[in-house]
Amino acid sequence: MNSTSTKALLKGISTRHEKALRRSLLAMSIAFAFVGFALLFPFVGRVAVTVGSMLRGSPLRRPDKWLSLLHKAAAWSLLASASSLGAFLLMGRFRHRIQDTQMFLVLFFLLAMHAPDDFFEPYLWAEDGTVLIQGAVFDGLKCVLVPGNGCLWTGQKLMAFLCYMLVKPFNSIAALPYIQQTLSKILATFSIFYFVSDRFSWLVEKRLDRFLVCVALTVIFPPNTVDVVTCETSLPVYFIFTVFLIGVDLLVAPKRHEISWGQTAFLVIFALSWPAAPFAIIVAGLSFLRYLACSLRNRTLTTGGLFLELAKTAIVASAVLVQLIVIMGGGRCSSDLDLWHRLVLNTKNFFFLPYVQPRASWVAFMLGLACWILFWAVGRTPPLLLAYSGLFSWGLLLLSSMVSSADGFYQHGLTVRYYFTSFEIALFILMVSAIRLVAHGNETVRKISFFLLLALPVADVSSNYKLNVVGAEFAKSFKDNCFVFDRKGKDIVRIAIGPWNYWTLTVPANIGGKDVPEDMVLSISAINGNIIDGENYVKLNFNLNPWGTTNLVGQAQIGRNGPSLTGLFMMNPADGSYNAAYAVAATGGTAFSFSTNLPPPYFSNGGTELVMYGRAADGSWHMGKVTLLTSIE
To answer: CA–CA distance from 614 to each of 316, 319, 505, 560, 574 (Å)?
Structure first.
């Protein structure tokens, strides 16, 4: 058998193996999705509680734990389904299919394991619920065009809408954070994995070397998880780095590339999703100018080509303009420009190296600048790449500072979300320079260098892995207050969201109406830390905290020997309706202890009747009332 036929045989075997693997991945995705969604049906939960009671020979003490296990099993099945489907799609998209799939899964695993508690015990944090999911519930698909908190969130809201539509038919929201977290991590991995593509072979020749750069970018994170691995609304923090890479491809590469329609679409979605929208038009605009200059120099400019490139740039510019109009009208920017002071502080805080260097230090700036000059002189790093990277990082940090005063931002408010991309760019330059340097050495030097490059992220694992996730206690709060809801109901359930208990996710729920028995006994033990006397008299002062809320502590119980409660909801007495239930962070049991923060509308001067609805372990709903003598100061 000659060499040609041998290669053909091996290629055929590889193709058959690849097809079999793809079919297996697709089958796994379908099977896990079926199991996951099946476990979300309320009927399955009732059967599980019944079977558990039969096996024990007596009613379960904590049936909510059985339901929690079912929800977790459903979430894990959906996670496995999403991962299998992602691998299936990945193998059909790229030229190096199996190798790309392996690389992607490694990067995904490293990113997920950076903060395991965040990935395996997810919950809704800040705008995840108050802007994204809540918008998907009430606005449907048009939520992608509705501003929130002073800017547009098109990409994030689209993801939230898809997640909500996946769980809505099954009357359970328990698996929603798991699905949202998985999609977020997949997209975040793609944002880094883009560098593996052959478009960057001019910068780092070998795919394995480019993969090592991605490994470093994934592993070496700042020692803080605020707004980076906890909050899905910060997903564009990863995407800003992709915008940076698109600029490297279009503006720095020796061979000119016109901006593709895929890159155009990405820049449009990015511009409509984050206040850093101006960087989308900067990259697209400079790319158009480079195209124009090169075409004129080479005398290859055509009317059709000019119109096409101009149209792409105009589309990105329109998206950026829309976002800027929303931002300027939403009061998101600081009115205190203090521009010169801001420029000086921004320069002194510039990130040359991938670590949190001393704040406002010219010494650190000069040392960092010397390192980049060394990268250019010794590491053979293209000077245009260094210039572009420095300007991108410097400009992004300056734009981020506009959220507050200059001193407030650089000396007090410089949190991870603002310097994260600058950190990534500094690490990117370090890794690219090191790999380009060792690529010119002999084989022994190359092997030693690869070992050192791999040791760099490994050495950082001890301080950057298994981090304490910010607000992790809300994972339990979400489980305790997450119930099956009826999508046909007219009432509202609000589920606690971090970082404040009274921030809520609102979903349809059928808990009101005349069929709910008033057999729940309520007792209030303390308000704002003050013990309530026998007459339930209390003085209220809404100025005790910045949000004007009142902390309420008490107990609820269904009769003397009634079923245990698994959750409690507060009805709003201000309008007498059943469409403003308030979730209560609580712990279950026969006597249900609760603690919640209520806004001022729940109370009135003279007397306040608090109406609560509780969900029992058997799925039934119960109502109770308690009257307080209130004096508002």
So the answer is: 50, 46, 18, 15, 20
Give the total residue count for the chain: 633
- Looking at residue 266, the DSSP 8-state letter turns out to be H
Distance (Å, whole) CA 198 – CA 195? 8
Residue where the block lists tokens 């619920």: 129
DSSP three-state, residue 34: helix
Sheet holding 565-571, edge to edge: 537-540, 621-632, 608-616, 565-571, 582-583
CB-CB contact of 628 with 607 (8 Å):
yes
Question: Alpha-carbon distance 499 to 126, whole Å?
Answer: 6
C-alpha 427/C-alpha 359 separation (Å) is: 18
- The pTM of this model reads 0.75
Residue type present at position 620: S
**Could you give the C-alpha distances from 136 to 328, 495, 496, 581, in angstroms and in order?**
24, 15, 17, 19
| All residues at 6 or more sequence positions from 57 whose CB lies less than 8 Å from its CB, including other chains | none
Quick one: which of 524, 519, 489 has its CA closest to 507? 489
Bond from prior residue into 222 cis (ω within 30 degrees of 0): no
Residue type, position 185, single letter:
K
**Rounded-to-integer distance, Cα 289 and Cα 620, Å:** 66
Distance of CA 218 to the CA centre of its chain: 16
Question: How does DSSP assign 141-187, residue by residue?
Answer: GGGGGS-BTTB--HHHHHHHHHHHHHHGGGT--TTHHHHHHHHHHHH
Classify residue 76 as exposed, middle or buried by CB count within 10 Å of its CB (0-12, 13-18, 19+). middle
Percent helix, strand and coil across the chain, each to the nearest 5: 60, 15, 30
Rounded distance between C-alpha atoms, residue 572 and residue 609, angstroms = 9
Q: Are strands 621-632 and 537-540 parallel, antiparallel or unpaired?
A: parallel
Task: Please report the sign of the dihedral spanned by the C-alpha atoms of residue 308, residue 268, residue 212, residue 181.
Answer: negative
CA distance linking residue 241 with residue 234, whole number of Å: 13
Q: Which residues of 404-439 are buried (b: 16+ CB within 10 A; e: fewer)?
A: ebbeebbeeebebbbbbbbbbbbbbbbbbbbbbbbe
d(CA 45, CA 388): 56
pLDDT along the chain (633 residues), means of 10: 47 58 77 75 66 62 62 72 70 62 83 74 76 78 81 88 79 75 84 90 88 84 57 75 94 87 92 91 94 88 89 94 84 71 85 65 82 79 92 91 78 71 86 80 64 57 53 66 53 65 60 70 79 66 57 80 75 52 58 72 72 77 81 71
- Output the CA torsion 199→202→208→211 (10° steps): -60
Residue indicated by tokens 């792409």: 312
CB-based burial, 251-286: b 16+ in 10 Å, e otherwise: bbbeeeebbeeebbebbbbbbbbbbbbebbbbbbee
Q: What single-letter DSSP state applies at residue 559?
A: T
**Max Cα distance, the chain (Å):** 98
